Amino acid sequence: MPPKVKNHTKISLKLLLLPGFSLLSMSVFLEHLLSLQSSGDREKLLTFNWDLVAPDNEPVTSACGTQVKTSLTLESQEMVSGINHYLIIFGSRSGHDNEQPAFYLKPVIGKALKKRMVVAGMDHAAFHLAKTDFISEHTLAAFNAIRRSGEHYSSESIPVHTGVFTRGDIWLCTGGHAASKIAELIAQKRLERISEIKKFTTSKVMNEGEHNDARAHPSSLTTEVTSTLQFIKHNLSTRLEADAIASRFGLNRRTLDLLMTRETGRTVQQTIVYLRTDHACHLLLQKTKSLKEVAEECGFENINQFTRLFKKRTGSTPAAWRYEAYLHSSR
After folding, report:
1. Which ranges form a coiled coil (predicted)?
2. Can you list the alpha helix ranges (DSSP code H) found in the chain?
């Protein structure tokens, strides 16, 4: 009997099928998910579960005429309850003459983003994302250009992963065989998160609120920077302002920011956020405090600010991070 694997992560997806969707895009995506699930090593085993979703109670007709019956509709409670990580929208492959989906998609996408889900649009789903103002017309134009030419478009604002555009929690894919790249990106992001969690939970230099800067060795820091770091660490739960901290050590903010950036790679304000989220990770691992208590003890203004800054740093909400840390901490 093979050893029981505890160090795994389950990824939940909702696959929304729009009329005229491409069976090729969907089959390529699902086949690649299954291959990633079966080929992962036992240290980083990924498991995927998904539900097919239709706009209403009727079967959804694909571009080739095949009708697909789904288990959920947009009105299903499961669309907004429980833990869901990704909403994948399979748009039509051939065109976007019907603008009706934009009307009923807006609240669905809004709720998904509010729940910190990633929303990925396949094929012409990008058209509906633009119509509902979740992406710009510039992004839509770039997406259409790559669909027509087959060439990769890249700019500072639109990173490209071989047929996939990522704009924060909005992803776009050209569909077809490129749908496999969305599956790869999902797995890549999750494995990176697992690696970060394991690195944090096994670190021996971080315990009982002691934090070492990742870039600079303490002996190499100037007195001003060392004093600033110590002051911030000892006062995380209080209101901290960069100007006031600089004045405390007889400096203006610009001078202290230059020193901090040169020696630690972060400004004073960035250091405050970094150490607060760092301390939050330790408190979340202890499992004895609520998210509200963690936010207060770390000095965040409210739970919303805590969630936003924590996700920006770790790529996950505090609740999801705590759950994943539990799965990957000990075996």
Report:
1. none
2. 23-39, 100-114, 125-131, 137-149, 179-201, 223-234, 242-248, 253-264, 268-286, 291-297, 303-314, 318-329
Please check whether residue 106 lies inside any domain of the structure: yes
**pTM as predicted:** 0.59
Q: What is the DSSP string of 49-77?
A: EEEEEESSSSPEE-TTS-EE--SEETT-G
Contact 134, 32 (CB under 8 A): no
Residues 211 and 110 in one domain: no
Helix, strand, or coil here: 216?
coil
- Of the candidates 98, 108, 102, 110, the one whose C-alpha atom is nearest the C-alpha of residue 14 is 108
Per-residue pLDDT of 56-101, as tens digits, reads 889 999 988 899 999 899 887 777 666 678 899 998 865 554 556 6
**CATH code at position 267:** 1.10.10.60
Buried b (16+ CB within 10 A) or exposed e, 280-299: bbbbbbeeeeebeebbbebb
Is 127 a domain residue? yes
Shared-domain flag, residues 191 and 207: no
- Answer yes or no: do 128 and 174 share one domain: yes
What single-letter amino acid sits at 116? R
- Partners of 14 in the beta sheet? 51, 87
Same domain, 250 and 305: yes
> Are residues 187 and 208 both part of a single domain?
no
**Token pair recorded at residue 79:** 């669309």
The answer to whether residues 100 and 241 belong to one domain is no
